[in-house]
Structures are given as structure tokens and as C-alpha cells.
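Interim report, section 4.2 (structural modelling).
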Amino acid sequence: MKVVVTGPYSAGKSKIIHHITNGACINVERNGTTIAMDHGLADLDGLKVFLFGTPGLLRFRTMRKILSEGADGIIFVVDSVDPESDARAKLFFREIAFFLPGVPCIVAANKQDLEASRPVDLLRKSMPFLAGLPVIPCSAETGMNIDSMVRTLLYLTMMQWSSVFSKLAEYSGNSDGLSKMMDDLNIPREQAVGYLRRFELRKLVEVDVGDERFVVREAVKPLLEDPVLVMRK
Ligand SMILES: Nc1nc2c(ncn2[C@@H]2O[C@H](COP(=O)(O)OP(=O)(O)OP(=O)(O)O)[C@@H](O)[C@H]2O)c(=O)[nH]1
Ligand SMILES: [Mg+2]
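Predicted structure of the assembly:
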């Protein structure tokens, strides 16, 4: 899955990606500030998670737009300590809602290891635009709640795709899997092929030449059949 990690300057986006990927990531930065992107790959129970961290300086909007393209889920990072960051968070939130309307989003209330960190109810008061979103208190410094935050987001994402995923699992390896999927979901060929391309890129399926047959990677099949499994760790 493709997950974009965004939010205001210095909220901890790069450090969160560093933690999720166990350090297997790159950060294009200058003096500690991301100027292009972070990129890393994590493996959660066989599910590949491609993470893209955005720059937190306002002027890099175009870069954030490019990185957001086609994301399946959003980790929106806020700084639990610095109240001055809240106004910037609002601008970033508007921006991501514009780039990725309807895409599942989870809020990482980061830096909870610090004494001055604000609890979630205070953050919600100060940032009312977070209403309706799950807000997870976490720390990229200690790792607190980072894993469960990512798993919750993946669950929300997989639920959004559940009708497609259950068909991918059902018709995996079937010689006319594509047409079966088209029939069941009542979608045109281009749309079904689009799904296969999308989830081939995300390493969920392998598609045969000609596109008629696809095979779901064995490791992820149980997750596609029952997304709640991604939360059970
Ligand atoms: N104590 C503490 N410090 C953190 C935490 N997360 C990040 N930091 C620190 O906050 C600073 C900014 O962290 P980054 O991960 O670079 O933040 P960013 O959001 O990627 O910043 P930009 O890319 O510049 O927008 C660094 O000094 C981090 O070490 C945390 O959970 N706890
Ligand atoms: Mg950064």
C-alpha cells in the first residue's frame, strides 16, 4: 500500500518513517529539514507499505502534490508540544484533503514522550478540523503506539477497498479472474485492469501477460479476505 506521511514543519514525519521502516529509508534533507521527501518500505505481515514523507515547509507544495498522487492512506502528523504549529497544521490539512479527498487518514499526535505534550482532548480543542478522525497519541522517539497507529490506518484503508480485495482473493489463480471480477463488481474492463495495475504496483498481486489471470501473493491473501487481521498483532 502507498501511505503518505504529511503534516507541518518539524512535527516528526521523518522520524516516524524512520521508526516504521527500522531505519530502512532515505531522507532528502538539508540541516535536518526535509527538502524533497522521505521514502521507505516496511513489511507488515507480508503487506508491503511504501511510505512517502513530505517536506513540512509550506513552499514545497508541488512536491507534496506529486508525493500524494494515488496514496491509499494518510498519516497526518501533528506536534503535540508546540501550539504554534497548530495553525500550520490546519493549512496542511486543507491541502491534503484537497489532494486526496476521501482517502483514509489517521492523526499521529507525536512527541507524547515529552512532558510538555498536550493530551488528545486538548489537541482536538485546539485543532477542531481533526473532528471525526482517529487521533493516536504516539512518540517516534520511544516508538509508543507507532505500530498500532500504522495498523489502524492499514485496516481503514483495506476496509475501503474490501469489495475489490475480497474478489482478488476469491479469483486468485483463476484462468478468467479478470472477467469474473468485472461481472461481480459490475465494472468495465478498464476499471478492473486499473485495479490490477494499482495492486500489482503495491505488490499484492501478480498479473499475467494479457491481464486475464492474476495471482494474489500468498502472504497477503488472509489479509485481503479479512482485513481485521492486520490489527491482531
Ligand atoms: N522528543 C521527541 N522528539 C521528536 C519526536 N519526533 C520527532 N522529534 C524531533 O523533532 C525534530 C523534527 O523531527 P523530524 O522527524 O525531522 O520532523 P519532520 O516533520 O520530518 O520535519 P520537516 O521535514 O522539517 O518538516 C527532530 O529534532 C526530532 O528528533 C518525538 O516523538 N519525541
Ligand atoms: Mg522531514
